[in-house]
Amino acid sequence: MLLLTCLRRTKTKNFYNEYVNKTPKKLKVIDAYLLYILLSGIVQFVYCLLVGTFPFNSFLSGFICCVSSFVLAVCLRLQVNQENKVDFAGITPERAYADFIFAQLVLHLVVMNFIG
C-alpha cells in the first residue's frame, strides 16, 4: 500500500513538473479558464441540488452555458496547441481565437434568449 502511494506521488510530481516546464503560457491561461468554467458548473449543480431549481430556465441556461463554454475552450486549446499543428494546418491561432469569440457570442445570445 505504501509503495502504491509513493508511486502515485512520484507520477503526480512528474506530471506537474512536466506541465509547468513544457506547457506554453497561452495554453496555461486556457487551462486556467477551463478550470474556472468547470468549477463554476460544479457550483451551479451543487446549488441546484441544495436549493432547488425554481427558475428552471435560469439553471438550465447557466449550466448549459458552462458546459458549452468548456467544450468551446477545449476546441480552442486543441487548435492553438503547437503539437496539433498537423491536424489543424489550415487554421492559424488568430483564426482559432476569432472563431472562439464568435462562437461565444452566439452561445451567449442563445442563452440570453432562453432565459426569457
UniProtKB/TrEMBL annotation:
Pfam families: DAD (PF02109)
GO biological process, one term: protein N-linked glycosylation
Pathway note: Protein modification; protein glycosylation
Primary subcellular site in the record, as a coarse category: endoplasmic reticulum
Superkingdom, natural source: Eukaryota
GO annotations of cellular component type: oligosaccharyltransferase complex
Bilayer disposition of the protein: Multi-pass membrane protein
InterPro entries referenced in this protein's UniProt entry, alphabetically: DAD/Ost2
Transmembrane segments: 32-52, 58-76
Subcellular location per the Swiss-Prot or TrEMBL entry: Endoplasmic reticulum membrane
Keywords: Endoplasmic reticulum, Membrane, Transmembrane, Transmembrane helix
Record-stated family: Belongs to the DAD/OST2 family.
Functional summary from the UniProt entry: Subunit of the oligosaccharyl transferase (OST) complex that catalyzes the initial transfer of a defined glycan (Glc(3)Man(9)GlcNAc(2) in eukaryotes) from the lipid carrier dolichol-pyrophosphate to an asparagine residue within an Asn-X-Ser/Thr consensus motif in nascent polypeptide chains, the first step in protein N-glycosylation. N-glycosylation occurs cotranslationally and the complex associates with the Sec61 complex at the channel-forming translocon complex that mediates protein translocation across the endoplasmic reticulum (ER). All subunits are required for a maximal enzyme activity.
Subunit text: Component of the oligosaccharyltransferase (OST) complex.
Protein name listed in UniProt: Dolichyl-diphosphooligosaccharide--protein glycosyltransferase subunit DAD1
